[in-house]
Amino acid sequence: xxxxxxxxxxxxxxxxxxxxxxxxxxxxxxxxxxxxxxxxxxxxxxxxxxxxxxxxxxxxxxxxxxxxxxxxxxxxxxxxxxxxxxxxxxxxxxxxxxxxxxxxxxxxxxxxxxxxxxxxxxxxxxxxxxxxxxxxxxxxxxxxxxxxxxxxxxxxxxxxxxxxxxxxxxxxxxxxxxxxxxxxxxxxxxxxxxxxxxxxxxxxxxxxxxxxxxxxxxxxxxxxxxxxxxxxxxxxxxxxxxxxxxxxxxxxxxxxxxxxxxxxxxxxxxxxxxxxxxxxxxxxxxxxxxxxxxxxxxxxxxxxxxxxxxxxxxxxxxxxxxxxxxxxxxxxxxxxxxxxxxxxxxxxxxxxxxxxxxxxxxxxxxxxxxxxxxxxxxxxxxxxxxxxxxxxxxxxxxxxxxxxxxxxxxxxxxxxxxxxxxxxxxxxxxxxxxxxxxxxxxxxxxxxxxxxxxxxxxxxxxxxxxxxxxxxxx
Length: 474
Fold this sequence. Notes:
Elements: E1 2-11, H1 15-26, E2 31-35, H2 41-45, H3 48-65, H4 82-108, E3 111-114, E4 116-121, E5 126-131, E6 137-147, E7 151-153, H5 169-172, E8 181-185, H6 189-201, E9 204-208, H7 219-231, E10 235-237, E11 240-248, E12 251-258, E13 261-267, E14 269-272, E15 276-278, E16 311-313, H8 324-339, E17 352-355, E18 360-365, H9 368-373, E19 378-384, H10 389-394, E20 400-406, E21 412-419, H11 422-434, H12 439-444, H13 454-461
Parallel strand pairs: 1-2, 1-6, 2-3, 6-16, 8-9, 8-14, 9-10
Antiparallel strand pairs: 4-5, 5-6, 7-15, 11-12, 12-13, 17-18, 18-21, 19-20, 20-21
């Protein structure tokens, strides 16, 4: 057994962990990072990077098959070479993991330790015990500790599911062939992206959704995406709750309660995408007085401190919004609060949210429902994309831009869009909300013609103008 002392000990090696290590080394602190598996965490290995790489490939195939909407253009696409596609995805992941994580850690010079970490000691004197793959035991003592272990796909306790050979978002991106038919449980952002991905790769997809698509976002978003999915042949079954799962050599079947009755759905493969859960099992958090919540999440205050003043948490493990940029902001903030008593607090009021379907869903700030629940009298406008010139020239007017404003002042509270480049629209909207702009100010501001972001200005003009009577760039 060996023992070492550090200023900061980090469990995990994803976005939150790296942001914390970079900030701490910049403060002159001695840092150790413990990782039990592959360096880089969810985003680069099994989340954002591989999924968006595959979505981009599926988009390219779909554009070829959908070329008839452009007069004079004829294109086609054959079956997908799935092994080659997965190999290309893996090469990209390896490249980014090496450049943005492994090499970066070496450049900054903090210590990397491979092994399973768990807390030991007492609440007043916490320690980390790390067991290496070879069985060696190392004890780490630090002034502060950061838990950044992320989250993993949640698998609900549905009878028969554990024996059905189900897929998760992680394992689905390692398939060596495109399933002819695919059942997807869930209607959130992971389910939406995976359903469209495999549909565009050639699967016949059915989604079983408990309530509605993107249920935390505006109802207009659910309606728009349902229309897009219907156009692309994806069947969406709403108000469906899976009761049992069975499998046989020919595939898998799910018996579900649907609108008061029972219905059985069959497919070659089943993808479970009903959310994620924090990874805290095996950390022995109780031994050092760190409280956890109902789903295993580490309970933190607005400054990311846990119930132990020397232990902090960042990213998905806190149960907060599951975005890598949230994790990165958490990591840096926790370090500042721990070492320089910054007193910083997390503020999600203008957090952008993007689902990378095509068209995409992008949102910032409050939905109309959230504004009403907060007791705010609001005024809203929903602009169909048929009034956005960029959408017209793209020959794809599926979607909308919605602006939620405070009645009387016109101060913008939230903006949502289903549109091509909705993520870029959301990025622009962050700055609008941060500046406290009103609909009148945005309507009078400069906006480049033939961009999707111009739709924000047009939507704001809709508060005082009949946009159907505007000329192309008025």
